[in-house]
Design a protein that fits this description.
Elements: H1 18-26, H2 43-53, H3 69-81, E1 86-91, E2 99-103, E3 112-116, H4 126-131, H5 143-151, E4 157-162, H6 166-174, H7 176-185, H8 187-208, E5 214-217, H9 233-239, H10 241-253, E6 259-261, H11 270-277, E7 281-283, H12 292-299, E8 304-306, H13 311-316, H14 319-336, E9 339-340, H15 353-366
Parallel strand pairs: 1-4, 4-5, 6-7, 7-8, 8-9
Antiparallel strand pairs: 2-3
């Protein structure tokens, strides 16, 4: 139940401006406002907003690979009503992977949470590689992307990507233990598998980039722990970063920025991501690793800085504490420019809807004064 008061969220009088969103993040000195940004908002948080604030009937996405059109309509209404300049949406090619499922413990949630199996993969030898049922891009259903593209209101853009990056799917298909073993015992298998994944995603992006309302490519590829990268920077440079460089090139060739969500401590590869890969903005911050203010002081003159409100504050703080952190970041990072306000990671199911509303309402209250 949403009980947090709000008075600045546009709801039924939004004025999206995706072009200004991109201009603000891509060009220093554009400080007319601090735009909103988000990577993922879980349905558990989205549903009460749709039902109580937007007064729409909630429709779950459905059990198939492609969400229902009614769900996509609610998706547009949600991102529009909250005051974003875009809808962010992603789907993944259907790579068979081993996952562990448990019931989601978030209050009000009826779904399962999924974690990749870190111990046993689908491919750990050449025989398994040959038997693996690789998906085909030409068989993939792009209709949800096309539906969103064709039904966005004027001024609103689409931000999208393939769900999961080359490193993530490599570590999920092989399992993390299997990947680490192969990096020591059979690097040729890692190379072939990474290249297979990269080529398939490249075909995915070649299709996605043709959408005429696409204003940014914004994938996720978590590559770090709290203390360091998950595998050596050298191996990331060999197997993952070259593919991000090619995806970024596709985006840049079509005149749209390439933003990257990647969790963990990436200090060892940040220069690679900026100078070689060519990312235009970075998302995902944790105060215990590097507060977003410190990241901006180091890299904000080179790329856009996206989000930064720590998940510990969003999930465990009070609405007033969330509002205070929003004011701090809009006042500090917004003043420097090339900044968008939002979470440090995403809005998972365990973030109270009242805290999410507090973040959005305070952002609208303060962002034009930065």
């Amino acid at each position: 139940m949403i009980t947090e008061s709000y008075s600045h969220i546009p709801l039924h009088r939004p004025a999206p401006d995706a072009a200004e969103f991109v201009e603000t993040l891509m060009h220093p000195g554009r400080k007319q406002r601090v735009p909103l940004v988000e990577y993922i908002v879980d349905d558990v948080v989205m549903q009460p907003v749709v039902e109580q604030l937007l007064q729409r009937q909630w429709v779950p996405p459905g059990s198939g690979p492609a969400p229902r059109q009614e769900y996509l309509d609610n998706l547009i209404a949600f991102w529009l009503g909250m005051g974003y300049d875009f809808v962010r949406f992603e789907l993944s090619l259907p790579f068979p992977e081993r996952h562990t499922l448990i019931a989601d413990a978030a209050p009000g949630s009826t779904k399962d949470r999924s974690w990749p199996d870190e111990h046993q993969g689908m491919i750990n030898n050449w025989e398994q590689f040959e038997r693996y049922p690789w998906p085909k891009v030409e068989d993939f259903d792009f209709s949800p992307f096309e539906y969103l593209n064709d039904h966005l209101p004027e001024g609103m853009g689409l931000i999208s990507s393939h769900g999961g990056g080359v490193f993530e799917h490599l570590s999920w298909i092989m399992s993390f233990e299997g990947l680490c073993a192969a990096l020591n015992e059979d690097v040729s298998l890692v190379r072939v598998l990474a290249d297979k994944l990269g080529e398939l995603m490249l075909g995915f992006y070649r299709h996605l980039i043709d959408l005429d309302r696409l204003v940014a490519v914004f994938p996720g590829d978590d590559m770090g722990y709290r203390t360091a990268t998950m595998i050596s920077p050298r191996d990331l440079r060999l197997y993952a970063l070259p593919w991000h460089k090619r995806f970024a090139a596709i985006a840049h060739d079509h005149g749209v920025p390439y933003f990257l969500h990647s969790c963990g401590n990436l200090s060892a590869i940040m220069d690679d991501l900026i100078t070689d890969v060519g990312i235009d903005g970075k998302h995902s911050y944790e105060d215990a690793i590097i507060p977003v203010e410190d990241f901006q002081r180091t890299y904000g003159n080179r790329i856009a800085v996206l989000g930064g409100i720590d998940i510990n504050i969003l999930s465990g703080g009070t609405p007033s504490q969330v509002r205070e952190r929003v004011r701090q970041l809009v006042g500090h990072c917004g003043l420097a420019g090339r900044y968008a306000i939002g979470s440090g990671n995403s809005i998972p199911s365990y973030v109270p809807a009242n805290n999410y509303i507090a973040m959005i309402d305070e952002a609208h209250a303060t962002r034009r004064d930065a």
